[in-house]
Amino acid sequence: MPEVKVYVTLKPTLLDAQGRVVQNALHGLGYDRVKQVRMGKYIVLDVDGDPERVGRDVKEMCDRLLANPVIEDYRFEVSE
Amino acid sequence: MRFGVVRFPGSNCDQDAFYALRDVLRVDVDYVWHAETRLRGYDCIVLPGGFSYGDYLRTGAVARFSPVMGAVQEHAARGRYVIGICNGFQVLCEAHLLPGALIRNTGLKFRCRQVRLRVETTETPWTCLASTGALLQVPIAHGEGCYVADDETVAMLEASSRIVFRYTDSSGLASAESNPNGSAANIAGICNEQRNVLGMMPHPERASEALLGSSDGRVIFESVIRTIRGN
Is the pLDDT of residue A40 over 90? Predict the structure, then answer.
């Protein structure tokens, strides 16, 4: 059954307040070379069907529910 | 005249809204369970505050697909009134009844305190009894109340007088210091193009009588009651 990995992140134009806090904490540990941290969501789905159909369905799922296009970008990978 | 207060699993300001409407404003009001598919006989629907569906995925994202939301869409399309308070505002944005979205407060803190709201327009069913520029003391209680929308949308809201409330300081100045959550343009509440749907992060139902510390929120309910009576 195809496994789908969906990654959802805030749009780059929006302040990612959580990411900023984590970045500051990393700087506090001495990792000064960290220039940006973006937090997001990682969603794994097992979806029945051929990969092409699954890809179409997951795009629709992202647009309708898994991500909010107003504030978030998403990408996903379908693997056998 | 009849109000309906929707109860999603995880709503927690439903009783406050019900109390304000029945006991303070003396109008007929029912609870409406989220599984309802019809909203017959209601003039105004309240989507209350809380954490519908545990705020899982995103605030309002799951509630937006509750059976009752189809009926709320129809209710709004017929020109009837809908107010979303706090989590209700988040649900209305997810449902595309209002533009934009609410994200995590820029300071990351859950902000629970009294704020000042400036009435930006009285040309709405929700503020027709207030005066433009009036300052209302109303509490907020949210972790994800930072209103965001693209620049064109914010400009459009401004140009069409759809920004109904802004966060200000006690002198009525909308400054960065008086913005509790990082909202674009200090936006605390907006309405839709037809102006019958209002979303706001502050809680007017918690400012409905002096015993609660402020009765400034009443004017919002009184305005819509007056509007409904006048129709």
Answer: yes
Looking only at the bridges linking them, the beta strands covering B111-119 and B81-85 are unpaired
3-state SS assignment for residue A52: helix
Query: Torsion-angle region of residue B168: left (phi > 0), alpha (psi -120 to 50) or beta?
Result: beta
Of residues B61, B99, B150, nearest to A68 (C-beta): B61
Looking up residue B155, the CATH number of its domain turns out to be 3.40.50.880
Domains along chain A with CATH numbers = 3-79 (3.30.1280.10)
Per-residue pLDDT of B1-36, as tens digits, reads 999 999 999 999 999 999 999 999 999 999 999 999
CB of B92 less than 8 A from some CB of A: no
Per-residue pLDDT reduced to its tens digit, B90-108: 999 999 999 999 999 999 9
Expressed as residue numbers, the domain containing B145 is: 2-230
B169 residue type, one letter: D
Q: What's the pTM?
A: 0.95
B151-160 contact pairs (CB < 8 A, 24+): B153/B99, B153/B100, B154/B100, B154/B184, B154/B185, B154/B187, B157/B99, B157/B187, B157/B190, B158/B185, B160/B193
Any idea how long chain B is?
231
Give the model's pLDDT for residue B146. 98
Whether B55 and chain A come into contact, CB under 8 Å, resolves to no
Q: What pairs with residue B191 in β-bridges?
A: B198
